Amino acid sequence: MTAMARFGFDAFKARLTGLFRKDAEQGTAVPVRDWINVSSGQPTKLQGFDQPLIWVVVALVALGLVMVYSATVALPDSPKFAKYTPTFFLTRHILSIVIGTLCALVAVQIPVSVWERLSPWIFVASLLLLVLVLVPHVGKVVYGARRWIPLGVMNFQPSELAKLAIAMYAAGYMVRKMDVKENFLRAVLPMAISVAVIGLLLLAEPDMGAFLVIAAIAMGILFLGGVNGRMFFLITAVLVGAFVLMITFSEWRRERIFAYLNPWDEKYTLGKAYQLSHSLIAFGRGEIFGQGLGGSVEKLHYLPEAHTDFLLAVIGEELGFIGVACVIVAFFWLARRVFHIGRQAIALDRVFAGLFAQGIGIWMGGQAFINMGVNLGVLPTKGLTLPLMSYGGSAILMNLVALAIVLRVDIENRQMMRGGRA
Fold it and tell me: Per residue in 386-403, pLDDT tens?
């Protein structure tokens, strides 16, 4: 009886393994290793959440905290920051991380189905805040841009909420329009109008960098949602044309492009290319292993905004090529992991959750790529921070909340793979 029972179990296991492997090849299930241990015949133990994802996020936030302190510790020596203590930016950054972590812990408890129902309202709230920030005496002006709403403990930037909102709204929109996604007027045009409204509000601040990221998120979700290829390329051409026109008819934007093309020209080195030239000097000084933590010279009032837009340059100078390479690999892994969670959700027929997660992957990966490209002189200078690392309260807050919702998607994926419900 024992031999027959063993034979029966082996036959059942072989049949079950073949079924799951077949489903996995068709994209309808996860690989067999997530369901059964073929070598031992025992079910594998699935973790409740993606631990490597959390550890990579913690590592990036922790490194960002150290580098923000290193980049700002000498700022009080400047007359502009004479009233600040050496730990002013450090304590505010820690406060932002604590608030963001608490909000993330709340966000991860909320089912994805609730986020799907709330997505239109979150989108509307982001639009109202983008309008509110333009109201005089409400929005705070910094360097000629009106982008922040003072909240006491931090200055909230509505464009950061808009990035999360557009990822949710576009994912929910594609779920609702799945049956008519081949029809331009019914599927694509309403979404294009929504992005255009956000774009007009952001350009009024002005904040072209945030608009670029938001447009990329919306376009990416439309493409991944299965919008007709011809319509996708048409929208892409329209967006590229719009950006070209904005640059053509804006003198200071044209000057920034020319400065990017030749940052060492005497005309631009002390003007539009000042940040870029000093960023490149910082990377050059860093060489392979860097000058050592705290050894940056460029952060000593040479490189403006070293703790926000150009934090990677300080990392390059102090930690060298090795430090920069580690940061690049970490962001690549993070974006790839988030995309994997999204694909897994779609394979489990959870389209909203999957498209939303992939939208967050576009946000994190795309914005990190733009920031790194600007720091390294590969892309024109644009005011975008490095996600999870740069100084900025609302950016850290929304980054952590977005990744917490992705983690919730992963948790529900694992619950379904165990045979439960999301």
Answer: 999 999 889 999 999 999
